[in-house]
Amino acid sequence: MLLEERKERKRNTYRLFPPRIVDVYSLCFGLSEDQEFIHMVPEIVKNNQGHGIFITTVNYVNGAIAAFMPGVMEKLSELLKSDLYFSFLNTEAAVIHKSNLVSQEVIQDALRFQNYNCGSEDFFSEKVYFYSRERDRIEVIG
């Protein structure tokens, strides 16, 4: 019965706070009604040149948590065809990078820059996370 309860919780979470892939424009100015769902192959993914994509929830409320929703990193790594680095900008979104295009040091430098220059009450940390496709596992690496 425990497995069924987990599946039901997952379905409820996806129903209430479905994860979305967004670009910088959508992150700053809001999601459109037809914003692409995580389980599609959106133009944002197809056009990614290493600058990162953002993941959030449809209403942005605690949107950064979408990175830890079951199956999200697995699906993103499948769409991007890469292991992934990710970090958190704030409580609203996580930024995802293909590990073969951006180093963890570059991500940490960007986080330090944002924290120092922009300052934010809801800034999380300068931690970088790594998702391994092979192991289907998330680890803190920096």
Estimate the global geometry from the Cα principal axes.
globular
Q: Which percent range fits the helix content?
A: 25-40%
**Count of all domains:** 1
Tally of extended strands? 6
Mean pLDDT across residues: 79
Radius of gyration: 15 Å
Q: What does this protein look like?
A:
The protein has one domain. The chain has a 6-stranded antiparallel beta sheet with strand order 1-2-4-3-5-6, with helices on both faces. The model has no long low-confidence stretch (mean pLDDT about 80). A hairpin with a 5-residue loop joins strand 3 and strand 4 (about 95-100). Helices cover about 35% and strands about 20% of the residues. With about 140 residues, the chain is α+β, with helices and mostly antiparallel strands. The termini are far apart. It has 5 helices and 6 strands.
Give the secondary structure arrangement, pairings included.
Blueprint: H1 2-16, E1 19-22, H2 24-29, H3 43-46, E2 53-57, H4 72-80, E3 84-88, E4 94-98, H5 104-118, E5 129-132, E6 137-140
Antiparallel strand pairs: 1-2, 2-4, 3-4, 3-5, 5-6
Keywords:
single chain; 142 residues; alpha+beta; 6-stranded antiparallel sheet; 35% helix; globular
